[in-house]
# Entry
Amino acid sequence: LCGDGLQESPEECDDGNLIIEDSCDDHCFNTRFAFQSFESIPSNFGGVLEADAICQENANRAKLDGIYKAWVSDEFQFDSPLFRFASTDYKGWYLLPSNPPELLARGWEELTTIEIHHWIDIDAGGNESILTPEFAWTGTLQDGTFSEGNTCNGWTTTDPSSKAQIGSVGNWNKEWTESQITECGFDKKIYCFQVD
# Structure
């Protein structure tokens, strides 16, 4: 029984309560954080591994535990979040690291199929974005797959003739990740998700 303090299968945890916003949610799954990067970055940031490193550095700077990866794709199908995150079976809550934490989406399925519960406008330190509108580099569709041909040549160029899929930070629907195709050459945030 979830919330009785005894961890039993299929529970991932049981902290003796049914509070969603702590490290063990109301269905006894571990919660994970998601946030936007502290800084905006140019479109030639290098690729998914470089973006992952930015996310991990942001999490470390904010003293958030866990492994973090960027919600970006490049021109290789298996570099998309759908494959890199290995999270399609995740059922716990994604939370924003505000104080108190804000609910983002219950599990991978909700994140990638319906509206999210809150804008991803909080950074790893819990600070809310003050810029409106604000956008994030994604190259990624809501289902976690790559937006083919829309990644600033694999995040290697600032040439405005190249294009990229971006997300709108101030949106709950799929536009949080697939808002529009825009030219490269500007600085934008990236989204970061805890994967373990």
Observations:
- The two ends are 24 Å apart (CA to CA).
- The beta strands are 32-36, 41-42, 68-70, 93-96, 102-106, 135-137, 163-168, 180-183, 187-188, 191-194.
- The chain is about 15% helix and 20% strand.
- The chain has a mean pLDDT of 94.
